[in-house]
Amino acid sequence: MMPRTVMSLNPVVCRSLQTIRRLQVPPIAWQVQALQCNRRFSQVAKLAHKPTDVTPASTSATDNQSSGNDDIHYDDHSWRQQNHIWTTAEIADRIKSSSYKHQPVVASDYIMKGIMNMLYHSFNLITGYKHDNPSAGSIEWRLIILESFAGVPGFMGAAFRHFHSLRSLEHDQGMIFTLLEEAENERMHLLTCMEMFNASKATRALVVAAQMSMTPFLIAVYLVKPAAVHRFVGYLEETAVQTYSNIVAHVEKPGTDLHTAWAALDAPDIAVQYWQMPVGQRKWLDALKRMLADEAHHRDVNHTLASLPPDAKNPFIKEHMDDFSQAADRHALKRSSEARLKAALQAYNEEKK
Length: 353
Prior knowledge:
By secondary structure, this protein is mainly α. It contains 14 helices and no strands.
């Protein structure tokens, strides 16, 4: 039997939704899907009866192209690099792992660890970051600078591997995709933050300075020893996880500056779409937890890549395949619902005639 929420909707939409039961959608998802369908039904119905002065003969190719672009949702991530959609249990596990620290083994590990420690403490001084009760202002531009730089190493590493594959006329063992997904993920973190914060001129200047100074350094190191760059990124992600775990803890703790400033904030739409955040978990805090989980995953990925031999196969391909399969299932459900809704609208219009 369909939930009461579904039965209270437009009768034509209800008949359309009856057929979706074969997809075995959980009850709570039934209600969400039904409410979304009902809203879209109303919107489409209004558009269907909206008068227009433009006839098909007077519509140019440019107008058609513009109209097509208007229908594109650029925050819909289903057609781009597919990220992992974190479950509540997975997020909890990642938060528990926030204290993990890789212990240097070889000389390059110690060098990269020393450089990272120097940059970390300098970064704290510049941004005014304090571990105990940090202010919202100090966190805002810290996250912008951090995420703007964190997206550099993955893309740079993918470029190196791409050109090497072309020169050697050989496969890359799947490493390029993992690095590109990491770079895209970090950029989405930045875009999410930019929906919440405003970047001052000083912040923008630091973003440019960090990129111009650190990118040549990373390129030089990658030319000599790629594993050292992955180790450096692993240490960088350890500090990012440490920062995010501290932020989450203070947002959840009443009486702190971050709790006062951020506890009641909703997550931006770009975050809801990107992480497919479920209903009831769409606060800014929920987005921060997913960003923490992403950083913890990047930490583990880069420490793993730093320890693998140069010709090793990518051990994370199975994860990418699973993420893609789940995204394909969500996409199929969405398209199926839209097709059935369109059919319901046509039936509704025929009944009115």
